[in-house]
């Protein structure tokens, strides 16, 4: 799955900006990155949302135990990969039909977060048990919400394209050569919300998340870590 967002939606993390300018390396534009993704799979689907957001996904090479899914409801778009162990109890909690899947559940959880402020984001994500990574974009508020599970079972990466878009993808190879050194693994057990304005751990939301510059020979520009986390 792939999501690209212009600077009007999300400002790139300073650490990735610094890493990208530290060593000259190849970058391509967000449009070229989306084209690369679409060209890699004949069955890939792409969605342009306004002038500043594009989402894409494919079922090619997906794990049957961790499928990818997409849904949109009330102008809330969601890409989800993985499986929730407690999906049944969460569907009851949110009053969803028995047929509802993980991506529908995440949209409902996000709506609860948005509409019942100050409902804490870590409370919402912390209730999700299982292996997952997801990207939520709320067109009505231009809000981006991204999260990955605590064990990193579903990988997620982010970087900055040549035209300054922030790109999220579950495939590191897709972003290699597209984002230069401004490429990092999205930290497990964390979420990023443009409403909050920063990365946070959903187990330890008060703990600071720091980025350590990676070695020059690595493809990564920085490694994000939760302080005090084991």
From TrEMBL:
PROSITE patterns: GATASE_TYPE_2. It comes from Escallonia herrerae. SMART domains: DUF3700. Residues 1-197 form the Glutamine amidotransferase type-2 domain. InterPro entries: DUF3700 (IPR024286), GATase_2_dom (IPR017932), Ntn_hydrolases_N (IPR029055), TSJT1-like (IPR044828). It holds the Pfam family DUF3700. This is Glutamine amidotransferase type-2 domain-containing protein.
């Amino acid at each position: 799955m792939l999501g690209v967002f212009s600077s009007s939606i999300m400002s790139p993390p300073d650490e990735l900006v610094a890493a990208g300018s530290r060593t000259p390396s190849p970058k391509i534009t967000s449009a070229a990155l989306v084209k690369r993704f679409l060209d890699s799979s004949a069955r890939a689907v792409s969605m342009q949302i306004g002038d500043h957001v594009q989402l894409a996904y494919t079922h090619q090479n997906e794990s049957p135990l961790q499928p990818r899914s997409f849904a949109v409801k009330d102008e809330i778009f969601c890409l989800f990969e993985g499986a929730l162990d407690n999906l049944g109890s969460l569907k009851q909690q949110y009053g969803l039909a028995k047929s509802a899947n993980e991506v529908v559940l995440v949209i409902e959880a996000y709506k609860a977060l948005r509409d019942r402020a100050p409902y804490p984001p870590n409370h919402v994500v912390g209730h999700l048990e299982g292996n997952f990574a997801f990207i939520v974009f709320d067109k009505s508020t231009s809000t981006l919400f991204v999260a990955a599970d605590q064990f990193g079972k579903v990988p997620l990466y982010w970087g900055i394209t040549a035209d300054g878009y922030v790109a999220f993808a579950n495939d590191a190879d897709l972003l290699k050569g597209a984002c230069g050194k401004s490429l990092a693994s999205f930290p497990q057990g964390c979420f990023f919300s443009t409403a909050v304005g920063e990365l946070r751990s959903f187990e330890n939301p008060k703990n600071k998340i720091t980025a350590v510059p990676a070695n020059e020979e690595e493809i990564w520009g920085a490694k994000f870590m939760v302080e005090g986390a084991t």
